[in-house]
Specification:
By secondary structure, the chain is α+β, with helices and mostly antiparallel strands. It has a five-stranded mixed beta sheet. A hairpin with a 2-residue loop joins β2 and β3. It is globular.
């Protein structure tokens, strides 16, 4: 999209992802939460499961697909931040899942259980 910087593109993608998740029955708990080493894009509940959702947005294919941009380092930072979030709210007995949503224009790709706590 012409005239949008990467932060605006990311926000637009996260808005699209939130609307998609709500339509799927998820309850959005938090967005753009900085904790630990990285930002947690979306924290949601899917039934009783706490879901950390990483959103990657592209409006051009020049840099590859949105999901190709999630590196091993990014995953480690998300897991670290999620553990800090869980500890800070003492949510030790809750089921946790990590999803990834790729937004490519109007196309949405949702991968449940994209990676796991370790």
């Amino acid at each position: 999209m012409h005239g949008l910087n990467t932060k605006n593109i990311g926000n637009k993608g996260e808005n699209i992802a939130c609307e998609y998740l709500k339509k799927q029955g998820y309850k959005i708990i938090a967005r753009n939460l900085y904790i630990g080493k990285s930002e947690l894009d979306i924290i949601a509940k899917d039934g009783k499961t706490l879901v950390f959702v990483e959103v990657k947005t592209r409006f051009t294919s020049s840099f590859g697909s949105p999901l190709e941009s999630i590196t091993e380092s990014k995953i480690k930072n998300i897991i670290f931040s999620a553990k800090m979030y869980i500890a800070s709210y003492k949510m030790y007995n809750v089921a946790v899942r990590f999803d990834v949503i790729g937004v490519d224009g109007e196309k949405i790709e949702h991968i449940k259980d994209a990676f796991w706590l370790n």
